[in-house]
Amino acid sequence: MAYDRSNIFARILRGEVPCKRVHEDDYALAFHDINPLAPLHVLVIPKGEYVSIDDFTATASAEAIAGFFRAVGETARRLGVVESGYRVLANTGAHGHQEVPHFHVHLFAGAALGPMLK
Ligand code: AMP
After folding, report:
1. Long-range contacts from 29-37, C-beta under 8 angstroms, 24+ separation
2. Closest atom, ligand 1, to C-alpha of 32
3. Strand order from edge to edge, sheet including 40-46
4. Cα end-to-end span (Å), the chain
5. Of all atoms in ligand 1, which is nearest to the CA of residue 17?
6. Is 83 helix (H, G, I), strand (E, B) or coil?
7. Per-residue confidence of the chain (118 residues) as pLDDT tens digits?
8. Nearest CA to ligand 1 atom 5
9. What is the number of the ligand 1 atom nearest to the C-alpha of 89?
10. Is the CB of residue 107 less than 8 Å from the CB of residue 43?
């Protein structure tokens, strides 16, 4: 699937749409989800143009992949949820119900989240 530069996360990265930023570095941007499904619900997105985790893991450089996952960990540390715990999830494709075609992981925290799938 070709990357669509008009997707909402591309627009956030370009500064065309505001976001509530938690962390930003050369590799990633982390911001609060507009429709939180947990007391803390943050999205972490790579700065490069990747449609999905499949695209990212198949085509991104080792540096970009390492930088992205370091940013996920840093986001959790900034949120102060390492000790209490958190969940990271990447919806992918139709069965994974991915809605925004720019690779992102959800970071949920702030309460006991219960079993993995309800
Ligand atoms: P997914 O189903 O994994 O593609 O999730 C996309 C997520 O992006 C959803 O949880 C939305 O609430 C969130 N979202 C959509 N637009 C925005 C936005 N402008 N700012 C923050 N989060 C957004």
Report:
1. 30/71, 30/72, 30/75, 30/78, 30/107, 33/106, 37/106, 37/108
2. 21
3. 21-24, 28-32, 40-46, 105-109, 86-89
4. 30
5. 19
6. coil
7. 899 999 999 999 999 999 999 999 999 999 999 999 999 999 999 999 999 999 999 999 999 999 999 999 999 999 999 999 999 999 999 999 999 999 999 999 999 999 987 6
8. 99
9. 3
10. yes
Among 7, 9, 99, 108, name the best residue to mutate to test ligand 1's pocket (greatest count of ligand atoms within 8 A of Cβ): 99
CA within 13 Å, CB half, 79 = 31
| Phi–psi pair at 103, nearest 5 degrees | -50, 130
Closest to 75 in 3D by CA, of 40, 38, 101, 37:
40
36 CA to centre of ligand 1 in angstroms? 9
- By C-alpha distance, which of 31, 9, 8 is closest to 20? 31
Taking the model in full, what pTM does it have?
0.98
Ligand 1 site residues (CB inside 6 A) read: 8, 17, 19, 33-35, 43, 91, 97-100
